Amino acid sequence: MASSADDWQSRVYELYWEGVEARTQAQRAEGAERRRLHLRSLDQHSRAAGILRAELDARPDEPRLNEQLASLLYSMGSSQTAVDLIDEALSSLDESESRYELSRLASPQLAIRLGDVRARRAVAHCAAGHAASALTDTDLAVEAYVGAGLQSAGPPRSLDFARLLSLAAVVHAQHGDPDQALFCAGQALGRYQDAIDTLIADPDAHIGYATDMAAAVASRIEAARANWDHALAVDGFTLSTAEQGWGDLASALARTGVHLRAAGRPAEAAPLLARAACLDPAAVPAQERILAEGVPVTLGEAVLRAGAVLGEPVEALHRALASGESASVTGRLPHPEAAPPYARRLGQLAADLRQSEGDPDVAWRLALESHLLYDTAFRHLVGDPRNWLREHGDGWTQTGITALHLALARGGEAVHDDLRRPLAELSGRLEELAKAGHPVAAAAELARMTAG
């Protein structure tokens, strides 16, 4: 039997806020203490979720209970990601998304919640090395906000989108297109700056970790390109907010100092580096490693390099996919249904580059972006999927085969296994298509590569 309303609601409320407080403290802590606090938050929220599940056993369709459980699962997924319990985080966030869809929240509140869950799931996939899933969830997260018109909202709602864009920037910087990472980071920082009055009036509204993420991505990419004025402008904003207690001061000092020194201004760098080392001895070496690592190849660069190596004209493809600014795969083109021809061309370039033993990183960027374009076009499909697959299934199959080969060749087992999942679903659809009398030439090879 479910407990009395006053008893269980009070206990859930108490456990929820104890967990929130522990997670807030964790965001300010370091090392073992940070992990301990995240685990405490996870324990409190897990206990609250257990109480809600008992209530849902009695009232499985109750919207308010599903909303409360979804919120707890979102928090649990965030804490699980922070302590490297990635499989558990993905499970929590999957269920959180499902529970929100049962909660009957009105738009745009539902869009915000779903977008946030998908962004958090993207970060979990990112941490696990799941490039395709991380970028797909990023696309879905941005799509949720944009679909509700929230990209043009002002403060304080714009801070929600800024947080999501900060997370998207991190995912793009690690597994996607640095141009998209820089756009997301810049858009996030712009929204934080526009909302500075809101943040000052309500310090609890600010999200220091999110500003840190966006600034770190923007500064890293600009520094890798030796755009020192831009990198140091971002560093200046980060340092000023960190001095006010918003974000990691040691990292902000170290990043600014490392960039000043690399830009040929060692005298200005020295006091910042010394102060950073006093606060955290690991801060300066960490920023030195980040600068040395550089950033991955962009889609625009990959298209141009492939064209040069293969001796093929790619200017029109480059203009269509890389000349504008976008935050996600879907945003690359004005209409998702326009994606397949471009996806096919990218896939062909990737396959030809692989056969000619060209740069595997360039080929991978092309193949992964091709797969994502096919995937988003199929996700937005209106009409009979069998007709679409008869027209575009062969191109997607060839792209999938190329991408799987490249993932293994580059040593990315996590990337390969993650990519294999959606391609196995494609393989199943192609098998059904073949039974209906419309076989796809390379479907058997894709089935073999995605089996198991």
TrEMBL record:
<dbReference type="InterPro" id="IPR011990">
    <property type="entry name" value="TPR-like_helical_dom_sf"/>
</dbReference>
<protein>
    <recommendedName>
        <fullName>Tetratricopeptide repeat protein</fullName>
    </recommendedName>
</protein>
